[in-house]
Amino acid sequence: MLIQARGLCKRFERGHVCVDALQDIDLDIEERAFTTVTGASGSGKTTLLLTLAGLLRPTAGSIQFRGAELAGLSDARWAAFRHEHLGFVMQNFSLVPYLTAHENVALPLAIGRGGRAEQHQRATALLERVGLANRADHLPRELSAGQQQRVAIARALANEPALVLADEPTGNLDPGLATDVLDLLRALNEEHGMAILMVTHSPEAARAGTARIHIDAGRVVEHARA
Ligand SMILES: Nc1ncnc2c1ncn2[C@@H]1O[C@H](COP(=O)(O)OP(=O)(O)OP(=O)(O)O)[C@@H](O)[C@H]1O
Ligand SMILES: [Mg+2]
Fold first, then answer.
1. Which of 8, 32, 153, 192 makes a 20 to 30 Å CA pair with 208?
2. 3-225: which CATH number, 3.40.1190.20, 3.40.50.720, 3.40.50.2000, 3.40.50.300?
């Protein structure tokens, strides 16, 4: 098992207001699985992703990665874990605006292993894979929304993550581009074997997965494997 979460709870407290965003969540993500997460707005989807990535601390519960407990790690160990094992694709692409497509993809590589030439080559290969070899020197604002999301996907893959967390990656794209990005994620999942956990509002996109989770008011109400 890649990720096994048990009894995961997240409570936000702000003054007198208290929101139980995750309530006793059990979740299994198998190696290479493409899991989709659906649920109404405010049901806790983003909170779940951020908690699994250690960007939010759970109020209770355990998160294991390949059998090792993560929940009690220090911030530094969580950061190292994210760098080594996770990739992120967000709805708004979150590219660095003043870096070119190539530089954005190379960014996570610069912190890691390999020499400059090797990093440069790898970023080029990743851009090629997402069909943007000829846009390497363009800034994000010179690219279309779909192209920007492709750059973000290439960047998420830079360090060969075991798991890519995607929060509505097609949410800001029109239907044709959304299908392209979805097909790309599915192809990469099959080629590279990294698991994907993807939040989506689209029932069609949800069917793209090999496993499905539906959450309602912070609880998993459906956990189906294809
Ligand atoms: N930092 C925070 N402080 C207080 N409450 C929060 C915080 N983040 C999220 N919440 C609350 O937790 C609940 C779940 O929010 P979350 O963002 O996970 O929902 P979501 O399913 O991703 O919704 P959407 O589909 O609109 O993105 C909501 O009630 C939200 O208001
Ligand atoms: Mg959200």
1. 8
2. 3.40.50.300
Greatest Cα-to-Cα distance within the chain, rounded to the nearest angstrom: 55
pLDDT digits (tens, 9 = 90+) for 126-141: 999 999 999 999 999 9
* Ligand 1 close to Cβ of residue 12 (< 6 A): yes
Q: How far apart are CA 112 and CA 123, in angstroms?
A: 13
Higher pLDDT, 203 or 85: 85
Please name the residue whose Cα sits nearest to atom 24 of ligand 1.
41
Residue 142 is given by DSSP the state G
pLDDT in tens, 32-48: 999 999 999 999 999 99
179 CA to centre of ligand 1 in angstroms: 26
Please tell me the distance between residue 42's alpha carbon and the centre of ligand 1 in angstroms: 5
Q: For ligand 1, what atom is nearest to the CA of residue 10? A: 12
Q: Which residues pair with 17 in a beta bridge?
A: 14
Report if pTM > 0.90: yes
Pocket mutation for ligand 1, best pick of 22, 46, 165, 201 (most atoms within 8 Å of C-beta): 46
Specify the pLDDT at position 64: 97
Q: Are strands 17-29 and 3-14 parallel, antiparallel or unpaired?
A: antiparallel
CA angle 50, 160, 153 (to 5 degrees): 65
